[in-house]
Amino acid sequence: QxxxxxxxGGLVQPGGSLRLSCAVPTSMINRDFIGWFRQxxxxxxxGVARITPNGRTRYTDSVEGRFTISKNAxxxxxxxxxxxxxxxxxxxxxxxxxxxxxxxxxxxxxWGQGTQVNVSS
Length: 121
Fold this sequence. Notes:
Order of helices and strands: EEEHEEEEEEEE
Mean pLDDT: 96
Largest sheet: 7 strands, mixed
Structural class: mainly beta
Shape: globular
Helix content: under 10%
Oligomer: single chain
Number of strands: 11
Low-confidence stretches: none
Radius of gyration: 13 Å
Distance between the termini: 39 Å
């Protein structure tokens, strides 16, 4: 099964920044919707941001204005720049690829292994 590979998680204080990167297979980088999702203990996996094949971006309300998703098709990477981080942003972050413009994790069929983001003072 083709998988994506995340990197860049870690520990950061509230108000700080982190940059997550997702390595995307060549077959998907220009064809698929690439999304970032997150899941914290006891909660459902939720969509955070996604980028369409033609580069349009979508964000969930809680991260709008703080997170930025971008794509580099040459390097086959999708990046999530996270600024002004809050305690509630603590979660395992996953990138995923799918064929539909949706924030529903169920419609994304290729996933990475996840990277932990901890926001703590």
